[in-house]
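User: Hi! Is it possible to get a structure for several chains at once, not just one? Here's what I have:
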Amino acid sequence: MNILEEALKRGEKTLSEHDSKLFLAEYGIPVTKEQVAVDEDEAAKIAGEMGYPVVLKGSGSELAHKTEMNLIALDLRTEQEVRDAFKRLTGHSETPVKEVLVQQMVKGDRELVAGLTRDPQFGPCVMFGLGGIFTEVLEDVSFRVAPLSRWDAHDMMEDIRAKKILNAFRGKPAVDREKLADILVAIGKIGLDFDSVKEIDINPLKVLDGMPVAVDALVVLDDGK
Amino acid sequence: MHSKIDLDKLFNPRSIAFIGASENPFKWGFIIVLNILKGQFRGTLYPVNPNMTSLLGIPCYPSVKAVPGSVDLAVITTPAKTVPAIIDECGEKGVANVVVISSDFSETGPEGARLEKDLVNRARRYNMHIVGPNTMGLYSAGPRLNALMPPVAPLDGGLSMFSQSGNVGVQMLCWGNNKGLGFEKFVSSGNEADLTCGDYLAYFGDDEATKVVLAYMEGINPESNLLDVARGVCRRKPVLIFKGGRTDTGGKAAASHSGAMAVSSRLLRAAFRQAGIIEIEDSQGLMDAAKAFSTYPVPQGNRVGILTRGGGWGVITADICEEQGLVVPPLPDELMQRFNKILPPFWSHGNPVDMAANILLEPFMECMEILAEWDGVDSVIALGGSIQGVFDFDAKVEGTKELKETVVLAREVAREYTTQHDVVLDHTKDLVDRTGKPVITVTLGDYDGFKSDLRDHGVVSYATPERAVRALKRMVDYRRFLDSPVEL
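Assistant: Yes, the chains can be modeled jointly so their relative placement is included. Here is the combined structure:
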């Protein structure tokens, strides 16, 4: 995987959000439609082609906590809003942002989390649970040791306390559990395929018309040193 | 990677050398020898002690090498620092396995750990295996081998257990005696310097006499192949593990305090589950599940029929079923009609089937039969199935002559009634055999008949619906695992 190798060569500790998603997409994990823009005009052009509303996010491997750093502009509905947001994000004084990610705005109706962690004894382990800003507080997550069978993946969905959130919900269809199982199995496979992937954090993994899609993703690297 | 170790000579030795045999009744070298003799070991026992010529009427030998015949197993109770030299002697004698009861090894610090490593290195030179050190010994029903520290004599049965705590394990043997649960093999794994839980599990997995494997574990040796072994064994027979040291159950405080530990405990539990191991959360639960698994067939699914003599208990049972993810399906019309014919008009008209204070045996047995035969459920819980202990035969009554006579008569009726208890139990067992579904009875009273229910009638009964449902849930979980596809 070139994305990984190049990032490691550059001595980076994480992949940027965009690179993380490109990497995950190669394993069949559905991600938001998005493109990197280096100037205002490009951002406006991409947004126009993608269709409104869009999200703009500061892009770069060092920008792991974009919400806290105020580097996100949500629900932009016009070209003017995109242009204004681009100026604001790139004009940030403390954190110079050179690139901006123009991203499809996925509203979604449920927020899940999925990821990979490494344990000294068990090796790569897949995590799945209730996502969004309350992940850490509610701690409603389930773990499985890679490799995961499809049954393991389905079992994880049964494991969380809030499992009913996967069913049909407020007029929204049930989450496609097979697609979700694909994602969890794939995350485990990445962990086994690449020692250099230390952690993966897909949060939120939003549900749009029953289909899970990675709205934010972070791949943490381990250069083996 | 580990290769499978043949432990047949460990659990079926023809001869034992007991090194550290003693005349002092307060020493383990005496107590364990006595346990072996009391247990009527089928092979030959050779006590070894250079200062004695006989012990309890048996010839004693100055060293293991002086023993006239071959020695399959050596049990060692001498102080830690003497053990390495004894290991060499055993190796030269051609002993297959040694059980090192002696403590003061890795559990006490780095000095002990070095000594322990030394034992293993020496044993490997002779291709010999070690149980322990710091073990409470082992038990094996086939050769009537009872080389345990405490004087417990387990009942015969199909359970085999390995335990990382000798005390907890031996306690299970004792509880088994009270509950009627018998053991085939038991080993206290001690410090696991050589043989680990994975080796015992592999052996129990292949052992035909072992029907259900039990374990108490606190951690998993990183070198152990336990999880790989479990993946194969769990497809063939149930493996129930009571895991101690689950630091994250104490709440988030533990998680934030020692995050790494908490996560790794969660991971261990996840890994257990992936391998098909049934994790048990408490000591009573281990024996409760052992009883169900070793007695009844595993249900085909999660649907439960509930029969109760009283409404409240039915409600409570239905609650726990739902909380545990078991389904209590509604009764179809056809079944309603059948119950209508048996029960008074004010019965519950649903599942749970509440007999509404009908105390007669016949309708109880009939209802149980209808539920068990219904293809809408995979198991039945019958509350009030065991009726012993409900009647107070001894209460004194003051009052008129008529009252006293009537009470005596009522007692006779009750006594007669209670003797029919066996009929209910045999009917229950018959239903289990006929339908292939677990029919679990709950006594709802203080009761000392659990052992007899199990051993004389083959019926699984518990004191409370909570315990019944939890045991059933373990079986349903195991069914889910058995039905899951094998992926390579």
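Residues 401-419 of chain B form the longest helix (19 residues). Chain B touches chain A through 17 residues (CB under 8 Å).

User: Great, thank you!
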